[in-house]
Design brief:
23% of the residues lie in helices and 30% in strands. The chain folds into 2 domains: 22-99 and 232-237, no CATH class; 100-227, Gcn5-related N-acetyltransferase (GNAT) (Aminopeptidase, 3-Layer(aba) Sandwich), CATH 3.40.630. An 8-stranded mixed β-sheet has the order 4-11-5-10-9-8-7-6, sandwiched between helices. It has a 3-stranded antiparallel β-sheet with strand order 1-2-3. The chain has 250 residues and is α+β, with helices and mostly antiparallel strands. It has helices spanning 22-27, 60-70, 121-131, 185-199, 213-222, 243-246, and strands at residues 35-38, 41-44, 52-53, 75-79, 90-102, 114-116, 146-151, 154-161, 168-176, 203-209, 224-236. GO terms for molecular function: acyltransferase activity, transferring groups other than amino-acyl groups.
Length: 250
């Protein structure tokens, strides 16, 4: 069977939407207490999340603030940024992605799901290491509600909340131990996390790779719809910045 072709909607036009720059909307909104800031550039504390948020229209001064905030030689993850990087800044990672939003999820609590907290972090980090759902750090659990499913006392699946633009919450860190895949655990946890988000009067959303057609098909079957294309990338600040590089001059 040939791979399914995914049609990606054009990015919305007009007024800026919180989901157009969700990391910035989060760090200037509900997640402001996690923010480190220099000028118009914000990032999460380094043990919480790797994401750094640029303004919608980064200037030379903004790129200089990025360099000053993270330091020479540091790798900077940039969620959703699709513009150019300054001269001398190496792009170390680039992945086309899609953003999906709730369009009729059958959100519901799950009787087997348990709330995870700081005491569960070692097991959560171990599960993430084995399944690679995306960045998860020692304090990521503080970003929102994380739910897990245990079998024989062992954590075998989890999902939780990450970015939190006003009125919206991202579902992230969805992962299942390879020995327990095929049981629908990820779908159940997504719907359970979505239920909690809905209960707060907010709307669930999530991201995935644009090439991950199986995941997109699953999310659509649960009641998500594609909203826009995006990009996940990272760039490395030069070890030795010239005045022009520090200022973001190309």
């Amino acid at each position: 069977m040939s791979a399914r072709r995914v049609t990606i909607p054009r990015p919305p036009t007009g007024a800026t939407h919180p989901l157009d720059n969700p990391a910035l909307a989060s760090l200037t909104g509900p997640h402001a207490h996690f923010a480190e800031r220099r000028g118009r550039v914000l990032r999460y504390r380094v043990d919480v999340s790797p994401w750094l948020a640029l303004p919608d229209d980064p200037t030379d001064d903004d790129w200089a603030d990025v360099a000053a905030l993270v330091g020479p030689g540091a790798e900077v993850p940039l969620a959703g940024y699709v513009g150019p990087t300054p001269e001398g800044w190496e792009v170390t990672f680039s992945l086309d992605g899609v953003q999906l939003v709730d369009d009729g999820l059958a959100a519901a609590p799950d009787a087997e799901a348990v709330r995870l907290g700081p005491a569960d972090v070692p097991e959560m980090l171990d599960l993430v290491e084995r399944t690679r759902p995306g960045p998860f750090l020692p304090r990521t659990v503080e970003l929102g509600t994380y739910l897990g499913i245990r079998r024989g006392g062992a954590l075998i699946a989890m999902a939780g909340e990450r970015l939190h633009p006003p009125g919206w919450t991202e579902i992230s860190a969805v992962c299942t131990d390879p020995d327990f895949r095929g049981e629908g655990l990820a779908s159940r946890l997504i719907l359970a996390v979505a239920h909690g988000i809905r209960e707060r009067g907010e709307t669930p959303f999530l991201h995935t790779a644009g090439s991950n057609t199986n995941a997109i098909r699953l999310y659509e079957s649960l009641g998500f719809k594609l909203r826009r294309s995006t990009r996940f990338m990272a760039a490395r600040v030069p070890e030795h910045l010239t005045d022009g590089q520090a200022a973001g001059v190309r």
